[in-house]
Write a structure and sequence with these properties.
The chain is mainly alpha-helical. Helix content is 60%, strand content 0%. Helix 6 runs antiparallel to helix 7 and helix 8 packs parallel to helix 9. It is elongated. The protein starts with a helix and ends in a 6-residue tail after the last helix.
Length: 173
């Protein structure tokens, strides 16, 4: 009887662990941002949670879009309402993998795993005339460019075509 209860307990623990584990594609912004941030840290900073928190705040100053929202949720921005940076810095100092860190963060704030990256527009294969103005503006915003005096869709297309040679060598679009 004792053997069966131990086996049942181990089986139950395994099932519960699988239920709380991240599934493929969940927390994509969290995992990629934590990996990107961890790659910027030197070995002596990785050992001290306080230094990690300070570096994360610096990292967040240059963030945009979904990464910026992730920083907001963790408390890495000055305008953040809450701060759970300790839930990031301590596990990072222990060299915990990013997916496990994101599991812990999800338990504190479920919004962290709700973030998704927008699909990137492949400018080599897309017809700009078929895109919405919103998408054209997003392309320019991703390039940190603006279109002064652009009122119509054709103005945005013309500006993107002018800037295309400058940015097509970059890998982020």
């Amino acid at each position: 009887m004792y053997k069966y209860s131990v086996f049942y307990f181990i089986f139950l623990a395994t099932v519960v662990q699988k239920c709380y584990a991240l599934k493929e594609g969940e927390c994509e912004v969290c995992i990629k941002t934590v990996d990107k941030f961890a790659a910027t840290l030197s070995d002596n900073i990785k050992k001290d949670p306080k230094l990690i928190e300070a570096e994360f705040k610096k990292f967040c100053k240059g963030s945009k879009n979904k990464e910026n929202r992730f920083c907001y949720y963790l408390g890495g921005l000055e305008e953040s309402a809450t701060g759970i940076l300790g839930e990031l810095s301590k596990p990072l100092s222990w060299s915990m993998p990013s997916d496990k860190i994101c599991e812990k963060l999800r338990k504190k704030d479920a919004q962290i795993c709700d973030l998704r990256f927008e699909k990137q527009i492949d400018l080599n294969n897309v017809d700009l005339k078929k895109l919405k103005v919103r998408d054209l503006k997003k392309i320019l915003n991703d390039w940190d460019e603006n279109c002064d005096g652009c009122l119509e869709k054709t103005d945005f297309i013309k500006r993107i075509e002018e800037l295309k040679p400058k940015y097509m060598g970059r890998s982020d679009l």
